[in-house]
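Look at a sample.

——
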Amino acid sequence: ALLAMGHPPLSLWWLSVISLAFIFELWHQSRNSIEAALVGGFSAFGYFIGSLYWLTAAYSALDEGGTFKGIISLSIGTATLLVPYWLIAFLIAYLFRSKYRLVKKTTTSVLLLCLLLAIAEWSRTDLLSHIPAAPLAYIWSDTPISQSASIFGTHGLSSITIILGGLLWSTFSKSSNRKYQMNSGIILMIFFASLL
């Protein structure tokens, strides 16, 4: 749920990026495909429950005759409906990393996870379920970065957010290659300096 703290009204975008890096570390430490999928599933559930709080807040005034319970169920149901997209992305990335051995380097496997998570976010909002609630791009709402949505679109900005989490993971992970750590750190410094 810390990932959702980047959304307004809190707008702690930096906490969201750190949370993504932490989620990637949890995925990286997964010992099997079930653990990897569960990391994706629980991360998604926490994120969507935290991001969809407005469903209960907006309709809490309708608390006549048990309507409020129905709205809470709607929030939980919507979050549960969105979980499989992340779960499948985390599972496929793990399978590429371990079972099929198509991705040998640690940093490359996390970047593959970033790509699959970006595809999952796109398919969640446009392709399959058409539920565009709570894209990761919303963490930039109260920053100058939000203006880049006119260039990259919501999906592009969500993808940039995911990649920033991957770069942060690459910079501080002990299992990341030293060359990748330096390059990731430089890219992050340039990006965050642009916010000043």
In short: The radius of gyration is 17 Å. Residues 40 and 90 are 5 Å apart (CA to CA). The first helix runs from residue 13 to 28. Helices lie at 13-28, 33-51, 53-58, 67-99, 106-127, 149-172, 178-194.
